[in-house]
Design brief:
heterodimer, A: mainly beta, OB fold (Dihydrolipoamide Acetyltransferase, E2P), eight-stranded antiparallel beta sheet, four-stranded antiparallel beta sheet, 1 helix, elongated, B: alpha+beta, Rossmann fold, Dna Ligase, domain 1, 4 domains, five-stranded parallel beta sheet, 18 helices
């Protein structure tokens, strides 16, 4: 059964590139052979290439990073589940479109750590009021309410590590 | 040790070791290369090193090692005084400078000579005479060698009244032309001028740059020869003033004056052209009183004419290419020459054969540079390190798995050389060797070399010094994109097999997978089946 994963380049010598969903088929698929160090991958051009794979490292947020060298090119890739990626896309969208009514799910748009929680469930908040402080890349970012309402739920606690797309606060 | 071996056992007729103890004033692959030659002769070796190289291969391989100072070259490998002191205190009777660093500093060679230690290379007088490019042009020209058209006297940059005369010279030479530094090298103190209007500014800029880089602001004019190939001749001379040519190398594949790939013989030369080139090079070297190893560089133009550029008074990075074609050991020969021996019979015989070479060799310079980012340096720690082997393959390196490539020095990490019966066989062998090569941890120039080795234009011998600038950009993107596609697939599969993000690998399945791997015969299809089976077994959910 094929498995969908989202693979995108990270830092280092990577040029900017859109992450892509990659199907990983198993039966007679594109990965002919794989062990702990190498994989033989058949590309869309029909050429079989040997990939040298480094150890899979998990980040604090659960995303996997792995170094892969193919044809002498070295890539550092980030891999996450497609469902998680879809969630992240939704989060990005909901951040862009501030709805004026109905429950607002406030999700993390960047991975980081919750530095402070300023509200609790039942609090009445005004638009622009600080809900959380998120620390990322050594910077503190205040997360504000997109509109006024009542805090229905606070899904995270102080000190918690969050990933992009994680649900943080629900405002009704 | 081998000093007691009977002379009759040596095919090149050199009976005893040339020196007792040689200090190698260099690092990296060339230090390793020289130590190897010494060990084969039973000569003890002294390494010198900076703080960045305490655990480097050349230090481990040498019999003794002496610390020079901190990592920056100016505080370590360029400290002539500390190196001569190290030779004195360790009792070395010779110093081999390798290439780069102090190899072509006449003052260093003189300090070594004055200390009563043999300098393995041309004399300080020869280095000084040939290091001044303008003086070398004059000397070669006087010996009847066709030098690149241009001036033979310094351009009087500092005198505004002389500008008219320089402009006249420039008209005579023709545009575009190059303003070059007499003390120059590696493109420093060099300016390209396309019209008379650009000349005054170019003269001032080149002179200022040369002044700060070399401490000598002398510049001269030279015609820009385009299209051109860079072809150089390996020379060896002894104390009796015998100078021989040991074949030529085509080093046209370069970028910003840095060579990327070299081969010998130069493709497409007739035996007559080859003979004429070798004789010309010998003439230029003899005029400068060459002793030991040097290389005469020429440009070969579209009308099949050779134009003399300069003589490098050192062992070249690409010397191994000549060694493979001529079946000689240049470093060994350098040591015997420095010890006062005449050229060996083996070298003389190789010189006789040089105009009709029966083998072809190619060298790919593997560097810690990113060919996708304008060859920016990529220092760091090497992960896996798998070098090619098998028939006709030689690898000169000081690197290995886990080794650090320091940011302080040249990014060259390995020279991959191949030799075969003819050029097309050698290219096939190079392609194969580069397919076997794996380096992880840092980006290297391997993709560039792989692209060259399978490029039609290269196979046809269509070389020029502008080839890399003209072709690399268009080759780069498709090559990298295809590799990235495969890398994505491999990464996704690897992560999936290692457990979905957040999950873990079932411990019980790992031994089974290992057993399947160990038990499977080393047959391609069976291995692939075992791999797939393993992949399926380890699939989460």
């Amino acid at each position: 059964m094929p498995r969908r994963l989202r693979v995108g380049p990270v830092g280092g010598s990577q040029p900017a590139g859109e992450p892509q969903d990659v199907e990983v088929p198993l039966d007679g698929g594109d990965v002919d052979w794989i062990d702990d160090v190498t994989a033989v991958v058949r590309g869309s051009d029909g050429v079989a290439r040997t990939a040298t794979i480094g150890p899979v490292r998990r980040t604090a947020t659960g995303v996997a990073r792995v170094e892969v060298v193919v044809d002498g090119w070295r890539f550092e890739l980030e891999v996450e589940d497609a469902e998680r990626a879809a969630l992240r896309r939704r989060a990005t969208r909901s951040a862009e479109v501030d709805t004026a009514s109905g429950p607002a799910d406030i999700r993390a748009i960047i991975p980081g750590r919750v530095a402070a929680v300023r509200v609790t469930a039942g609090d009445t908040v005004e638009a622009g009021q600080t809900l959380l402080v998120v620390e990322a890349m050594k910077m503190q970012n205040e997360l504000r309410a997109p509109r006024g309402g009542t805090v229905e739920r606070v899904a995270v606690g102080e000190g918690e590590t969050i990933d992009a797309g994680d649900l943080l606060v629900v405002v009704r | 040790m081998t000093a007691d071996a009977p002379a009759s056992l040596r095919k090149d007729g050199a009976g005893e070791r040339p020196f007792r103890r040689v200090l190698i004033a260099n690092r990296g692959e060339i230090a390793v290369r020289i130590i190897r030659a010494c060990r084969e002769l039973g000569v003890e070796t002294v390494a010198v090193h900076s703080d960045a190289d305490v655990h480097a291969a050349h230090v481990r391989m040498a019999d003794t090692a002496v610390r020079l100072g901190p990592a920056p070259p100016s505080e370590s490998y360029l400290r002539a005084d500390a190196i001569v002191d190290a030779a004195r205190t360790t009792g070395a009777d010779a110093i081999h400078p390798g290439y780069g660093f102090l190899a072509e500093r006449a003052s260093f060679a003189r300090a070594v000579e004055d200390a009563g230690i043999a300098f393995v290379g041309p004399s300080s007088a020869t280095i000084a005479a040939l290091g001044d490019k303008l003086a070398a042009r004059r000397s070669a020209s006087a010996a009847g060698v066709a030098v690149v058209p241009g001036t033979l006297e310094p351009a009087a940059v500092d005198r505004p009244d002389a500008l008219g005369a320089i402009a006249q010279e420039a008209e005579r030479i023709g545009y575009p032309l190059l303003v070059k530094a007499a003390a120059g090298g590696g493109g420093h103190g060099m300016r390209r001028v396309t019209s008379a209007a650009e000349l005054p500014a170019a003269l001032t800029a080149a002179s200022a740059e040369a002044g700060s880089a070399f401490g000598d602001g002398t510049v001269y004019l030279e015609r820009e020869i385009r299209p051109a190939r860079h072809i150089e001749v390996q020379l060896l001379g002894d104390r009796d003033r015998t100078v021989v040519a040991l074949g030529e190398r085509d080093c046209s594949l370069q970028r910003r004056h840095q060579k990327l790939l070299e081969e010998s013989p130069a493709p497409g030369l007739t035996a007559d052209e080859r003979r004429e080139l070798h004789e010309t090079a010998v003439r230029a070297a003899r005029a400068a009183g060459l002793e030991n190893a040097a290389t005469a560089e020429f440009l070969f133009d579209a009308d099949r004419r050779f134009w003399f550029l300069e003589v490098n008074t050192r062992l070249q990075v690409e010397h191994g290419v000549t060694e493979l074609v001529a079946d000689i050991d240049l470093v060994r020969e350098q040591l015997f020459i420095a010890a006062g021996r005449p050229l060996s019979d083996r070298i003389r015989a190789a010189a006789e054969r040089a105009s009709a070479p029966e083998r072809h060799a190619i060298q790919a310079r593997l560097s810690a540079e990113d060919p996708a980012r304008d060859f920016a340096p990529t220092p760091g720690r090497i992960g896996r390190w798998q070098m090619p082997a098998g028939p006709g393959v030689r690898v000169d390196t000081a690197m290995s798995a886990g080794e650090r490539v320091p940011p302080d020095y040249d990014p060259l990490i390995a020279k991959i050389l191949v030799v075969d019966g003819d050029r097309s066989a050698a290219i096939g062998r190079l392609r194969r060797a580069l397919e076997e090569t794996v380096v992880t941890g840092i980006q290297t120039t391997l993709p560039f070399h792989r692209a060259i080795a399978s490029h039609e234009g290269f196979a046809e011998g269509a070389l020029s010094i502008d080839w890399v600038d003209d072709h690399w950009a268009e080759l780069l993107r498709p090559a990298r994109t295809a590799a990235l596609g495969a890398a994505r697939q491999a990464a996704a599969a690897a992560v999936a097999l290692a457990g979905s993000p957040g999950g873990s690998v079932a411990a019980s399945e790992l031994p089974a997978a290992l057993a399947a791997r160990d038990g499977a015969p080393p047959d391609g299809s069976a291995w692939a089946r075992a791999g797939r089976l393993m992949a399926q077994r380890r699939w989460p959910r």
